Structure formats: C-alpha cells, structure tokens
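Dig into what follows:
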Amino acid sequence: MSDPEKPDADGPEPDLRTRLVDVGVELVSQEGAGALTLREIARRAGVSHGAPRRYFPTHLELLSAIAHRGFAQLGARVTTTLGEGDAGPRDQLTELARTYLEFALGNPGMYELMFRHDLLESGHLRLRDTSLPLFGVLVDLVDRVRPGGDARSVAGALWANLHGIAQLWRWGSLQLATGTDDLAPLLRTALDAHLGPEAGR
C-alpha cells in the first residue's frame, strides 16, 4: 500500500504541495473561506494533519497559496476579456467590470478569500505580484478614459463600488432594494458615477 503523503511513482500524481492547494481551491469553492482549516485540507488530501506544514509552515501561507490560484484565474479571464485591446478604453472598462462581477458572483468563496489581505501573507508568497497588476490594468484604463485626473483614486473608488455591488447582490439586498434582477443598470450607473457619462448617451 502506497504512502498517501508521497507521490505515486507509477503515475503523474501532483506533488503534495500542489495537491494541498488543489484541495483548498475545491474546498473554498464548495464551502467558503471559513472551511479552510489545515486539518480539513489535510483530511481531504488523504494525509496526516501535520503534513501540510512541510510546505506551509503557517495556515496563512496555505491560504495565500490558494488565493494566488484565484488571482491567476481572474487574471486569465481579464486577459481574455481585454483581448488585443482593440476596443476603446471605456468599452474595455465596461467589459472588465462585467468580468469582475461575474467572477465574484460565480466564485464567492474564492472571491472572499482573495481580498482578505488582513488574513493573507501577501508579501511572503508574492501574492502582491499577482493582485496588484490587475489593479494596475484598472488604473491604466481609468487614466485613458479620464486623462489628467487621479486615476489611482478613481480606480480604487470604482473597485470598491464593484465590490459592494457584488457583495450586496450575492446577499440579495440589491435585488430587493432596486426591484430588479438585472445587474446591467447598476454597472452602467457605477461607471458613470466614477468616469462621467459615456459620450453620446
């Protein structure tokens, strides 16, 4: 009988570090960030509860590695959404915001974890190197729509607005308050509020 804490020599089983992160990603998608304990991840990975500490000396480091996977997924979606950048910056911002909201609503557990920088070891595992470039894309697009302004502050306010929309929508509060199940008007209003009305509308 093989040792579950060692890769199987007969097959391409991923190393334990990768397997622990894979299990964490699956767990957060099923049960939310609160379920991400070292003991539960180890149990689902089929290893002793002390095994994760070989690769992740602290719980925070394992959470950060899981969040890193989420940022990579979001980054890939953003890259696909923006494509070659042929559309104008306002249209790109609209699509970027829509992609962000779709990710947030489709992956609530991972989304919650990703932005808990109060919990994560964002420097140690280079999490900032994954998350900050995504914000940089937003800042660049805002600057192209509103040149000469404080693009970083506007982008921060817009991001906070989108985050609030995602959270309140997931809780059902916005649908109740606005009487609609259509996110599009809220997204358009948020963009208009931070960028000014779109030309010709």
